[in-house]
Amino acid sequence: MDQPWRKNGACNGLDPDVFYPATEEDAEEAKSICGRCAVVESCLEFALARREKDGVWGGATERDRRRILRQRRQSA
Ligand code: SF4
């Protein structure tokens, strides 16, 4: 799978553990990094399309992503 946007991610080279927090509440550091990432939209859409279960992607935790998908279904 080729995701050329990944090399431009603000998380590139950072400790991946930051993006796999133990709890939703521990996700703030990762969300902050995503908040200044140039490829945040590509990253989020990738995770949504894969129904990614773990980690923070595109500034969204799993719970956030479930909410986004639910909202999209409701407005479709
Ligand atoms: S949005 Fe967040 S997880 Fe995705 S590439 Fe950017 S910094 Fe990394």
How would you describe what is shown here?
With 76 residues, the chain is mainly α. The chain is built from three helices and no strands. The protein has helices spanning 28-34, 40-50, 62-75. The protein is globular. The structure holds iron/sulfur cluster (SF4). Iron/sulfur cluster (SF4) is lined by residues 9-11, 19, 33-34, 37, 39-40, 43, 56-59.
Annotation keywords:
mainly alpha, binds iron/sulfur cluster
The residue fraction in helices comes out at 40-55%
In this entry the ligands are:
iron/sulfur cluster
Strand percentage, roughly?
under 5%
Unreliable parts: none
Total strand count, please? 0
Termini gap: 28 Å
Radius of gyration (Å): 12 Å
Query: What is the arithmetic mean of pLDDT?
Result: 96
Identify the overall geometry: globular
How would you sum up the major sheet?
none
